Amino acid sequence: MKNIIFILIITTAFLGCVGKESLGIDKLPPKKPNMIQHLGDSGDTINEVTNVNFYNNTEFEENGIDAVPDGNKIKIEWEHLLDTDLDYLKVYRFSEADYLADNLEFASIIDTVDYTGQDYYRDDFLGVNSITHKNWFYFIEIFDKSGNSTLSDTVCYRLLEKPLIISPAEISEVNSLNDIFFEWTDSDAQQYRILLFNSDREILWQYEPLALEETQIAYSGSDCGSGDYIFRIDAFGHLTSSSPINGKTYPIIAGAESEERVIIVE
Predict the structure, then answer these.
(1) Which of these, 68, 101, 134, 235, could form a disulfide with 189 (CB 3.0-4.6 Å)?
(2) Single residue among 133, 159, 185 that ends a domain in this structure
(3) Are 50 and 129 part of one and the same domain?
(4) Does one domain contain both 41 and 93?
């Protein structure tokens, strides 16, 4: 049944292209978009490189599909689209439960976005009551100005409960970072990571508690002097696998990010 659904989506796009032939309009569909799987998290060690930072001088982390600090949301990314006549794109989402329910409309269009060169989208889950502890799948469909379209591949992610920060308070003013204690509520994670950034989003310090019950940590990095600093707490779950989706099993990355707070060192 699921194979039929994907075939119907592709067939519909193809018929839309055929319908343009009589008008003498471009019939060549856009190049297939490549979604970016989860590449890792800031602070990871990847290929022997420690403290990897995915911010790359941008306002958000360029690490593929991931959780974000502001709310229970998922960010998806795709490789830069090279076609020069793109018009808009549709974002599709479904959960593993939707797929296994054998619902003919298991994949929903959650947004239609005018394409202006952006290579990412944030899913706010508007109207969705239950968000965490579900395997969420995404793909996009891009359209050119002649109405031709192409579907991407699929990526997935599982949101955990956010760590709720107890201290420091938002916009804390201190004499030294050595005066700081980080405390948060224990959620359903298997590991936590405290990340401290400067205003340029460089990682100044990170700490991963050895025990899950250790949720109050004193700052133990260098005294970085006066300035504004940003911190958050990331949560990670076990790597699991999905049920077969259209014949393919996906690795499921699970995680969450706390809100970000500012520390002002005078």
Answers:
(1) 235
(2) 159
(3) yes
(4) yes
Tokens of 91: 């974002």
Give the pLDDT mean for 142-155.
97
Domain hosting 226: range is 165-265
21 with 151, same domain?
A: yes
The beta-strand segments (E) located in 187-249 are: 191-198, 203-207, 216-218, 227-236, 240-241
Mean per-residue pLDDT over the chain, rounded: 89
Tell me the pLDDT tens digit for each residue of 65-105: 999 999 999 999 999 999 999 999 999 999 999 999 976 78
Question: What is the DSSP annotation of 39-105?
Answer: ---TT--BTTB-S----TTSSS--SSSEE-SSSS-EEEEBPPP--SSEEEEEEEEEEHHHHHTT-TT
Where residue 157 falls (left for φ over 0; alpha for ψ -120 to 50; beta otherwise) is beta
Domain stop point among 120, 142, 159: 159
Whether residue 186 sits in one domain with residue 211: yes
The pLDDT assigned to 188 comes to 81
The stretch 172-201 carries a mean pLDDT of: 93
The tally of domains found in the chain comes to 2
Closest by CA to 156, choosing from 74, 61, 51, is 74
Residue listed under structure tokens 């500012």: 262
> What one-character-per-residue DSSP string does 149-194 give?
EEE---EEEEE-PPPPEEESPTTEEES-GGG-EEEE---S-SEEEE
For residue 210, the model assigns a pLDDT of 84
